């Protein structure tokens, strides 16, 4: 059976309005973003970019694989530049960033180690990669996992274990790997 769900086919306007901006996640990003020289990898409709711009006046860069989502992000005028990109391949920017982040995107990548290695190559010395994802412990206590146990099996197959992510960061050349748990307050 083929999956009828295709990310780019989602109506971007609906996604833009329905997708929650988690204030604690944006607070976390803003602790690390010091200039316009940052990349939101997998920016979708630009919700996080817009919130960062509203709160700090900073306009970074964004990329996503869906042109429909990016059209919405461009209309919001919240980034210096936005480009189509498949994060399982090379970045579309010929640029070095101070900070690269992705939020709730890594589990969509087939080969996260490619994204992590590309991030390392596209960061200035001392730059930082921020990955927002759910851990196995997070998945086990989600509403859908508790009340629909079959959903947990699906999520565990989609989300990359922290050990795999840490290993990919070390292989790419990152010398430091830290985790921080956020409350996801909307």
Summary tags:
186 residues, alpha/beta, Rossmann fold, five-stranded parallel beta sheet, 9 helices, 42% helix, Methyltransferase type 11 domain-containing protein, Methyltransf_11, S-adenosylmethionine-dependent methyltransferase activity
The biggest beta sheet is recorded as: 5 strands, parallel
CATH topology: Rossmann fold
Shape: globular
Strand order of the largest sheet: 3-2-1-4-5
Give the helix proportion (percent range). 40-55%
Tally the helices.
Answer: 9
Structural class: alpha/beta
CATH superfamily (homologous) name: Vaccinia Virus protein VP39
Q: How would you spell out the order of helices and strands?
A: HHEHEHEEHEHHHH
Task: Give me a quick take on this structure.
The chain has 186 residues and is α/β, with parallel strands linked by helices.
Architecture overview:
InterPro entries: Methyltransf_11, SAM-dependent_MTases_sf. Pfam families: Methyltransf_11 (PF08241). It is globular, with a radius of gyration of 16 Å. It is of the alpha/beta class and 186 residues long. Helix 1 crosses helix 4 and helix 5 packs parallel to helix 9. The protein contains nine helices and five strands. The protein has one domain: Rossmann fold, CATH 3.40.50. It has a five-stranded parallel β-sheet, sandwiched between helices. The longest helix is centred in the C-terminal third of the chain and has 11 residues.
